[in-house]
């Protein structure tokens, strides 16, 4: 790949996409990719045409969630053709599909990340889409900056776990979106509580209402509170996240 994609080419490629939403987090490991996948599944179940661009180049995890580890992209006159997920036909593009094997590390500095991001934006043939979700790497680095500078996003969903919600890291990410004039659609609190599988009692193991307090401070909504659920972790591990039946986004409109 090379860095010859113009902003106009990117605009053309994204002109058939109705809504572009980025999923962001302050820190790694809070479940951002899991939330991206669950959100995509929710939207697809509602009859929308949905795609995910995995922009976490240094640690791509979207393919694994959908069992697409060994998927290949197609190449046509119109550009890169992303593979689709088994159950809901969600289009997925990840740098992992373009690497020789999935254990090859991506060792790139900022300019390379910017170049590859623009390449993927300008060369992927998404077709008609209702939603394109961008799974961003954690933090406020090169990938979110390039995306927010290059694409007019319709919203950013901030994913946080209760343990990091009291630190400044989530606020930094929220402020980055604001500084880039990107609307924050709301906060998803992941690993919010645990429901006992025997008696159904809910325990707020990491503290309660942290997302609500942060949302109030910034005049935002809490979009969803997702519990720690071993079934979700297990299905994700074996590439079957589409078989997870609970939907935490029922009342959400993006
Ligand atoms: N609600 C949940 N219940 C149980 N396990 C979860 C939940 N959310 C995420 N996990 C598990 O936590 C781990 C990290 O999740 P995930 O990869 O989605 O995080 P991430 O924020 O995208 O991480 P990174 O930024 O490193 O890519 C995974 O093993 C995932 O299955």
UniProtKB/TrEMBL annotation:
Q: Which residues take part in binding ATP?
A: 26-33
Q: Which family does it belong to?
A: Belongs to the Mrp/NBP35 ATP-binding proteins family.
Q: How does it assemble?
A: Homodimer.
Q: Which domain of life is it from?
A: Archaea
Q: Which CDD domains match?
A: Mrp_NBP35
Q: Name one GO molecular function term.
A: ATP binding
Cite the entry's keywords alphabetically. Answer: ATP-binding, Hydrolase, Iron, Iron-sulfur, Metal-binding, Nucleotide-binding
The protein's matches in HAMAP family, at most eight in alphabetical order, are given as: Mrp_NBP35 (MF_02040)
Record-linked Gene3D superfamilies: P-loop containing nucleotide triphosphate hydrolases
Q: What does this protein do?
A: Binds and transfers iron-sulfur (Fe-S) clusters to target apoproteins. Can hydrolyze ATP.
Q: What is this protein called?
A: Iron-sulfur cluster carrier protein
InterPro entries the UniProt entry points to: Mrp/NBP35_ATP-bd (IPR019591), NUBPL-like (IPR044304), P-loop_NTPase (IPR027417), YlxH/NBP35 (IPR033756)
Q: Which Pfam families match?
A: ParA
Carries keyword Manganese?
A: no
Query: GO biological process: any one?
Result: iron-sulfur cluster assembly
Source organism: Geoglobus ahangari
């Amino acid at each position: 790949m090379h860095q010859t994609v113009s902003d106009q080419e990117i605009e053309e490629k994204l002109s058939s996409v109705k809504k572009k939403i980025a999923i962001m987090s302050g820190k790694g490991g809070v479940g951002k990719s899991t939330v991206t996948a669950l959100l995509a599944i929710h939207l697809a179940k509602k009859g929308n045409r949905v795609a995910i661009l995995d922009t976490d180049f240094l640690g791509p995890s979207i393919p694994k969630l959908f069992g697409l580890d060994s998927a290949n992209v197609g190449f046509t006159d119109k550009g890169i053709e992303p593979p689709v997920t088994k159950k809901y036909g969600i289009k997925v593009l990840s740098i992992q599909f373009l690497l020789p094997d999935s254990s090859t590390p991506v060792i790139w500095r900022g300019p390379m990340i910017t170049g590859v991001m623009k390449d993927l934006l300008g060369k992927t043939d998404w077709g008609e889409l209702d939603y394109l979700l961008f799974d961003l790497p954690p933090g406020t680095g090169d990938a979110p900056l390039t995306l927010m500078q290059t694409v007019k996003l319709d919203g950013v969903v901030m994913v946080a776990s209760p343990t990091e919600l009291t630190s400044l890291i989530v606020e930094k990410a929220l402020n980055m979106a604001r500084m880039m004039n990107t609307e924050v659609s709301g906060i998803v609190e992941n690993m919010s509580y645990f429901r006992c599988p025997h008696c159904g009692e809910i325990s707020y193991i990491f503290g309660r209402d942290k997302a609500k307090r942060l949302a109030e401070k910034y005049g935002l909504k809490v979009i969803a509170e997702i519990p720690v659920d071993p079934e979700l972790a297990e299905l994700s591990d074996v590439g079957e996240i589409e078989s997870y039946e609970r939907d935490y986004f029922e009342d959400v409109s993006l």
